[in-house]
Amino acid sequence: AVQLTPRRWLNLQEYQSKKIMADHGVTVQRFFVADSANDALEAAQRLKAKEIVLKAQILAGGRGKGVFNSGLKGGVHLTKDPKIVEQLAKQMIGYNLSTKQTPKDGVMVKKVMVAEALNISRETYFAILMDRACNGPVMVGSPQGGVDIEEVAVTSPELIFKEEIDIFEGMKDHQAFQMAKNLGFKGPLQQQAADQIKKLYNLFLKIDATQVEVNPFGETPEGQVVCFDAKINFDDNAEFRQKEIFAMDDKSENEPIENEAAKHDLKYIGLDGNIACFVNGAGLAMATCDIISLNGGKPANFLDLGGGVKEAQVYQAFKLLTADPKVK
Which of 16, 31, 136, 317 could lock onto 115 through a cystine, CB 3.0 to 4.6 A? Predict the structure, then answer.
């Protein structure tokens, strides 16, 4: 079967997700965003942190082990010196960063996040997601964070805790407190973690998320519960009431043909073959791609017109396909 690479319709950079969380009262590390080396230096000086973490902002994962075409290795760096932040930013901004998840030539870095580096004394995992099996949101947590949760589910399933939330009644205080306890938070940190969990649920509802995943959801040696990293998935159908969030969508890293297709409400995924697929309905489109592959061919794309198609969309779809140099 043809493997399609799933892509969220809404793409947010790390700093954008963290800003949304901070705006809703969730505790994240202090940070600034810079689009020049000079701005990065000023941001580092303003932070007045013991240690600073500098992160290249691209949508692909694996930044830490990536390589820039400037020669710099790594898209994530720790330093105590603001001047080093400036030097590193000079080698990041305006250069392409290549990781396992980027195209071969990498992706140009236009912004960097300059953040306070916090020590993590303990890491846990926490997420809220929509579960069709229970027709509502579910909390998922583990005292073992900072690693792939799927791996934990296989090796230590007893360390995965789930709790269904009644969509009409909302999250109860005792549910949040029990989850904090299951995650291993003790003493005052238990209440602090429960408060953060409730704020994350309120965020989940308010922004029409389908998933809010925090890994690690950790504690610092100073006794603070912090959301160190987060992934937020949104319900595309809620765009009409989440205009401010959807306006943040970063399409700059998409293939130009994908952006052009989106302008005409066409769903397009580029593949590496030479036979164009132009189909009405995602199920039929996937079946068509499979049939082509099973008969020795290779599909060049997945193009779904969807329902309620108009003549102008058909015209634009043909324009996109015939402009693709791969299509024979």
Answer: 31
Alpha carbon distance 152, 135 (integer Å)? 25
Q: What is the pTM of this model?
A: 0.75
pLDDT score, position 118: 95
**Annotated catalytic, 51?**
no
Q: What is the pLDDT of residues 200-222, one digit of tens each?
A: 999 999 999 999 999 899 999 99
125 classed as catalytic: yes
Q: Which of 15, 125, 201, 268 is catalytic?
A: 125
The model's pLDDT over 118-153, given as tens digits with 9 standing for 90+, comes to 999 999 999 999 998 888 999 999 999 877 788 888
- Ranges of H-type helices in 161-236: 173-182, 188-206
Kindly state which CATH superfamily the domain 256-323 is placed in: Succinyl-CoA synthetase domains (3.40.50.261)
Looking at the DSSP bridge assignments, the partners of residue 77 are: 54
Domain positions in the chain are 30-116, 122-244, 256-323
The first and second tokens of residue 163, run together, are 């709790």
Residue among 14, 213, 219, 258 flagged as catalytic: 213
| 122-244: CATH architecture | 2-Layer Sandwich (3.30)
Q: Averaged over 30-44, what is the pLDDT?
A: 98
Quick one: 30-116 is in which CATH superfamily? ATP-grasp fold, A domain (3.30.1490.20)
